[in-house]
Batch of 4 targets.
Target 1
Amino acid sequence: MDWIPLYQESQLEEIRQRSFSRAQAILKYSVLCSLSATIKDRLDRSEAAADADFYWLDLIRYRSISNAIAESYGVTHKSPQILLIRNGQCVYHESHMGIYMEKLNKILTEQQENAGK
């Protein structure tokens, strides 16, 4: 998995803009949490959707960015947590043990099929 580090609040606008042409996923991750490590490892071992960019946020170090994400997309903060951004909006979010790449891939596939109709 080629993770893009999310470490500046200005990247949030870039992510929003890119989401109009390509899905953007944000993993909010605590470096102090063993569950976060387990989830990131699970995602790393999975086949990622080719039509999405994947960001990871160290929310301990960059808590203000985590708060901005929660505010921007109206999603209550949890950790670990993944958000899927499409067309400037959060179209899917999940946390803790509910995070699976297969779910993300399924949602991306469904959205592509619906866009083609």
Target 2
Amino acid sequence: MRFAALTLATVSMIAAPVALQAQAASEACQQAQMDVQNDVNGTLWLAAGFFLGILGVGAAYVLEPDPPATRLVGKDPQYVAVYTDCYKRAGKDIQVKKAAIGCVASTVLATLCYGSYCCLVAGAAASANSGY
């Protein structure tokens, strides 16, 4: 009985700080995700995908946004590591999503324009051959 009580006390002494660290890490990650929503320029990445196509999507995937250093001043190293990792991951997700939307939009627009052009040319050729 005494061993069980000692084991329970030891486990609770170890588990309490770990739970606090996990909660702090979760809060750091949530804060990073909120901050990156305001920091990443979605319009820029949408335009990159629209005008550069797959190259814009590739650039969005390769380039990771860095959090402003001023947000991390005075924070403990674990907070900085978790915040930075979550910030980069969430920022990259936003960039790639916006660039992919721009790429798809330009592809659809180009397809529609090309289809319309082909219909106009075919119509003009048909009317020229019919004698009207």
Target 3
Amino acid sequence: MNIVLSNDVLPVSEAFMDAFTVILVVFGVLFIMFVLISLSGKIFASASSKKEAPKAEAAPAPAAASVPAAPEEEFSSGTLKLKGCDEKTAAMIMAIVSDNTGIPLSELLFKSITLVEEK
């Protein structure tokens, strides 16, 4: 079986070898691009982690066994009206809502908490 291309006869085995060579070249170039992209990603990741490391080291070390520092004030927005429940119960409810929703407690805004009695 022969393939005719512009009055030249090309044997089928030679055509398959040419196609195989082209496929190998394409996949070889794709593999080289994959390796280069992977290496550049690792290089950029290590460079960015090196930039972040000195910032962490620059923080002053806390004093050892001295007077414990007072807790920093948390941002508070608005007021909370408690209707029929104590502060401890309200704090527990707010913590449960924060945990279940995955939203930090500092980002939640509670307007009121009302105790609902079952009848």
Target 4
Amino acid sequence: MKLLSLFSWLLAAGIGFPTVQAAEATRPNIVIIFADDLGYGDLGCYGHPTIRTPNLDRMAAEGMRFTEFYSAAEVCTPSRAALLTGRYPIRSGMCHDQFRVLRPRSLGQLPDNEITLAEALKAKGYATGCIGKWHLGVPQFNPGGHPRKHGFDFYFGLPHSNDMDPTPVAPKGAGKLAEQRAEWWNAPLYRDDQIIERPADQTTLTRRYTDEAVKFIQRNKTKPFFLYFPHTFPHTPLFASKDFAGKSPRGIYGDVVEELDASVGKVLDTLRAEKLAENTLVFFTSDNGPWLIMNQQGGSAGLLREGKGSTWEGGMRVPGIAWWPGKIKPTVQRTLACTMDLFTTSLKLAGADVPGDRPIDGLDIRPLLFGTGPVSREAYFYYRGTRLMAARSGDFKAHYMTQAAYGQPKHEEHTPPLLFNLRVDPSETHNVATNHSAVLGQIAQVVEKHKAALQPAPSQLVEVQPVAEKK
């Protein structure tokens, strides 16, 4: 009792606080900025000739730019589930072969038994915030799908994609049209548990998201924080603020990406101004490849084949930029890494335990980030819904099934599999299967090992709230 009383007195007197603060200072802040449908070739630092991205270019020059960074899925709901859980989405049930993403009236959600990055970091004393597009549950029809039920202290954003609430006046295929009108869309904007605006003014979304991100950083600057910042754009329909609309040579798509770039700049500037930069890992990436069927309203996969919705490289290889002044040296990183790695790496940085009661697919890539050694990955698996379409081991990728992102109703099976050497042929143009039967055999063994240990979860993407009949 005396020891307890003494300890209580020390805390009350503030004598114990410096030790606590010193411990907290060793735990870095973590910021993950997640663009929506941004293609591999859409940034200046990845070769785009007309979209101007000076802030992301500087971020890449000061940090690490990955050339072989992957999303874990080719569409948004499963890719977001994978990032936040460190697991292929088939393990959590956040994928389906027909219903590719959660819909506006979906009753499914990221299962409660999944451990999110926010939950794991919150348990280590982190403040946690989600600002932007969620798409892992629709709170209006299932309160359990709200971000605040999955480890986030604060939420500001849209529950799903910005095209999922068309109004009755929206023309068919409105998202593809070059000119967008605000009255066509009825997306709800949440602050925590409340809808504060419907329809959300999408011309101001990026700016308001950024303002909220800056305030979150400033509000939590005295303790470790995790900011998950999944932007709504450049998913169609495309809207930019008056400061950016009509300014890019690339048209409205360029306007939107250039405003995202400015948003990244403000986040980094805030970290510098608050003297937090040297204790903060910032990672920028995209949820999947570009939505090519949107024509000029969609982005570019650069030299990669296909785009969003496909397991060709253009559907899942995305920009990846890591920034941490004083910790990450300016480097171009050509080792394969993925969004699931952010889960494991962030937990390791925070001194948290990686869950040991379930398979975790993300690897600890701190050796890559800090230049201390290699990271060994036996294989990387490309899923489209519940189907394992392809697998990569080393430089070689075997396609067991292929399907164009859109317009091809059924997948095509390949026996023998198609084989591409991605280090030589990232565009997947030259099938070298006949020359590398041994490689195909090695990849097949890894695939069988993966399948044998896999326990798919029931899909969360099927059940929806029925529309009430009019009387």
